[in-house]
Amino acid sequence: MVYVLIAVLIIILIPISYIVFLMIFEYKPKVIEDAIMINSSIKKLPNEFSVSTLNFGYCSLDKDNDFFFEGGKNARGISHEKVCSNLEGNSNIIKELNSDFYFIQEIDEKGSRSYDVNQLEHIISRFDKYSSSFVYNYRLKFMWYPLIKPMGSAYGGLLTLSKYSILNSKRYELKGEESFPRRLFFLKRCMVVSTLKTEDNKDLYMINLHLSAYDTNGDIRKQQVKFLIDYLNELYDEEKNYIIVGGDWNHLLPKEIYKDDMPIWVNLLPEELYQDKFRLVYDKTVNTVRSEEKPYIKGENFETVIDGFLVSPNIETVDVKTVDYEFEYTDHNPVKATFRLK
Q: Which domains does the chain have, with CATH numbers?
């Protein structure tokens, strides 16, 4: 009987101790923080420039992998060698795109989920002519799930690269949070606002963001979009500034292809965000993301468009194109747009 009681106590205490451990080490960023500025450029911003956005998938969610949150088995990269290969592949994509700005999401500084490959250091070293701005949105000591091969630790975030001089860059907390204890395991969603000066001495705000996924009814995403709407309406002044928002929206951008049987990580982006002043910019002819219930097989995995840009009305879109790499190195395809300031 004593042994049974001891066993019961152990079964009860282990998960409680684990939750307490996570609470002690929970990442709690401020509502607004300075971003980490790494490299710095002194080049002046022209009136026309290109911007690309790409979710790296922590260089682990390549075409041969799946993801446990979508019905797959894995939470880590397949191997250290595979993560390194994906990192090199994503680096080559950046080089091939040859953009003036990059909005990068899910890039790891370290973490057992990506075999402690420092993707951040690799990118900022390889592209050291760019100004670099980085913020964390994930600092997790250890995720003990899935039980057989747990995700482990994760330290990653959002990286913005600019060929031109960034005056300042700040991390803004996005409203909406998972309930306890789920919040202990999830990303601390945010956006990064980088400010540059234009030739006519106006401010250009370049905003890199990554909205929530896996909130079943989309309530958290609704709060985040509402926060973004309020923020942009307060910030925008046609006579004083320009605004470009880009990244992984985790919302379907082309509303004409929305269906009721979408996966839970896809919601339709509320029209209030762009129906008055701002304009969505995306390429609806090429999908930017694929589902991860299994490794990628063209024509079998679900695909859609959730990556792109939102721009203020005083910015002209010259071109936008999604480049199809068939999810070779990450579960996203990059979107490149060229803009002209009016």
A: 2-341 (3.60.10.10)
